[in-house]
Here is the input.
Amino acid sequence: MQEHIIDARWLEPPEPMELTLDALGSLELNGQLRLLIHRMPHMLFPILQEWGYSYQTNCSDDGTYEIIICHKDQIARLGDPGKP
Amino acid sequence: MSNPAELSLDQAPPIGVPFRFFLTAPLFALFAALMLLWQGPDLLSSRWNPALLGTTHLLTLGYMGLIMLGAILQMLPVVAGVPMQRPKLIASIVHISVTGGILLLCSGLIFSVPVALEISMVALGAALLLFVVLVIITLRRAMPQNVTVRAIRMAALMLAATVLLGLTLLSNYVFGWWLKDREMLVNLHLTWGLLGWVGLLVVGVAYQVVPMFQLTPHYPAKLTSWLAGLLFTCFLGLATTSHSPAFRWVLEAILAVGFATFALTTLWLQSKRRRKLPDVTLNFWRVGMISLLLAIALWFMAQIVPAIKNSDAYELLLGILMIVGFAMSIINCMLYKIVPFLVWFHLQSRRGGNGPKVPNVREILPESRARLQMWLHFSSLCMLLASITLTTTFTYPAALLFGVSNLLLWLNIISPSRLYYLTNGQGQTTASSRLN
Here is the structure.
C-alpha cells in the first residue's frame, strides 16, 4: 500500500482542499492519503463522499487534524470509515 | 441537522443566486462616481443635499446592500444546515425588486421625481422586508450558540428597523406630512443602517473569516460572548433618547468604545497571524479597521470641540470614513474571497472525481489584478478625504479614481464568472459528446 502525505497546516483556505482533491486524482486503488491540517476541513467531507472516498479523522494534542482518505472499496482498512 | 460548516451541492444555492447580486453592485458605485464627476464639489456641499442623499444610497443600498444580500443568500443554507426552498425564484424577486427600487429611489432623490420615489417605496419595502423575514426564519433553525449566527440575526433585525425608518422618512419626504423629530429619526436611520446592520454584520462575519483566511488566533471568547449583544442593546436604546441627550451620549460612547475594541482586537490578531506574507485581503481589512478607528476618534473629538461638530466637513468625513473606508473596504475584499472560491467550488463539485482538473483560486482571480484595484480604492479614499479637509480641487481626481476602482472591481468579478460559464459549458459539451 502506498501512502501520500499532504502537510496543509497553516495554508490559507481553500489551498488544503485544492491540494487534497488534486492528489486524489492520482491515488492508487489500494493507496491512502494522509492530510495534516490545522482545522477540521468540514467542507471537504461531502465532496469525498460524493466522489466515492472514505475518511477517518483524528486530532492530536498539538491541535493538528489528521484525515486519512482512501477509496470506499478499501473501507475495511480504516476501521469505522466515513465518520468524522 | 447537518454540520453547519459543511457545504454540499445539495445545500449550496446555484452559483447564479449570489452572483447576480455581486455583478450588479459595483455598477452602483460606478454611478456614484459619475455623479461626483458630474456635480463636482457642489455634491459634497451639505449632507442634506438631495443629490448627495441619492448618491449615498447608490453606495449603501446599491453597492453594500446588494453584495450583502447575495452573500447572505449564499450562506443561509450552509449556516442553517438545510437547502433553501426555490432559491432562484427568491433571488430573482429580491434582486429585481431591490435593483429597480434602488434605481428609482436614487434617481428620484437626485432628479426630484416624486413618482419614482413612490414606486421605490413599494419595491424596496416589500423586497427587503421579505428578505429579512426569510433570514430570521432560516436562522431560527441554525445552531443558537454560534456567535456569528447571533450577530447576523441581530444585524438582520437592524436592517428591518433601518428599512422601516427609511420608508417612514421617504414617505414624509414625498408627501410632506408632519413628522416630529425628523432630524433625530434621520440620524437613527443612519446609525442603525451603517453601524447596526453593516457594523454588526462585519463583527459577526469577522469572528469566522479573520482567523480562517488570515490564519490568526481566534477572537477571545470573552469578547465574542458579549460584544454583539451589548452593541445591539445600545442601538435599541438610542430609539428612546429623543428627550434625553445625556443618555444618548452615554449609549453612543458605549457604541464607540465597543466598535473601537473590535477594531483594535482585529488589528492585534492580524499582527499575530501565522504566515506573514503580503496579502490583499489583509490590507483591505486593516484599512477598514483604521477607517473605523479614525471615525470613532473624530466622533470623540467632536464631543470635546463643538467647532468640529458644527462644521459641514464633520458629517461628510464621518460618512466617507464609514462608507468608503470601513464598509466598502471590507466588502470589497470579501468579494475577492467569495467569488473565486465559489467558482472553484462549483467547478470542482461538478467535475466529480474523474473529471478534468479545474483551475485553482489564484488562477481564477490573479492577485495582481486584485492588488491594482486595492490601490485604486485606497487612493480614491485618500482623495475623497482630502477633498473635504484640504481643497475641493481633489474632488475630480477622487471621483475618477473611485470610478476606475469600481470598474476594475466589476471586471475582476466578471472574469471568474465568465470562466465558470465557459468551463462549465465545455464540461457539459464533453459529457454530451461522450454520451453520443
User: Anything to note?
Assistant: The longest strand of chain A covers residues 53-59.
